[in-house]
Amino acid sequence: MVAVKIQFTNSATSEAKSLHVEDVKLQSGMRIKEFLEIEVLPAGETVSVVMGIDFCDSTQAANFQLCTHTRKFFVSIQPPVGELMMPIFMTENEFKKEQETLLQSLGQLMGMNEITEKLTLEEKCQGEHTIVQRVTTAANLGRVPCGSDKECRFAGKTVTSGSLVLVSVVTKEDGAAQLTVNCEKMVIGTMLVKDILQALTQ
User: Fold this and answer.
1) 21 burial via Cβ count (<10 Å: 0-12, 13-18, 19+)
2) pTM
3) Is 152 exposed, middle or buried (0-12, 13-18, 19+ CB in 10 A)?
4) 109 φ, ψ (degrees, to nearest 5)
């Protein structure tokens, strides 16, 4: 499950009682682990809770009602695609081998599992440290060691199905770069490319 931290602040002048979840509406396959009921939240106070949501490797929203003893609020939580994965450790050789295996296994689908985009990095984003920071902020991926200082590699797997996600950013002259995403799940791969491109070029 993806851990979702929720912070409640009671901005009313009276205490709120019995904060809990009701009327959960989820897409097929999704599950939710509700937080324990908050019996009392005094006026002006803040409390944090964590709930688990199995988004089933999809960016569909989890919908539910947050209820107190007197009111109901409609809540919709839609995850960024980068939060649907978790980092894994991998050596450089394992990364290359998995990348080749992915390409071979889905080669008959005309490389649909590999998405490549060319981009131009601004001067402030051309350093290796900045690239790593921006990619790992956009997606919950682990850094893969690399023998070249012109390439940054990352690996992870989707939370629900454990599908492999491989990302590489190769830098060239004058800020030119190439982003490659290998993913068994086409929709996740496409959305991830979009989010990482935005993180590297904004």
Assistant:
1) middle
2) 0.83
3) buried
4) -95, 25
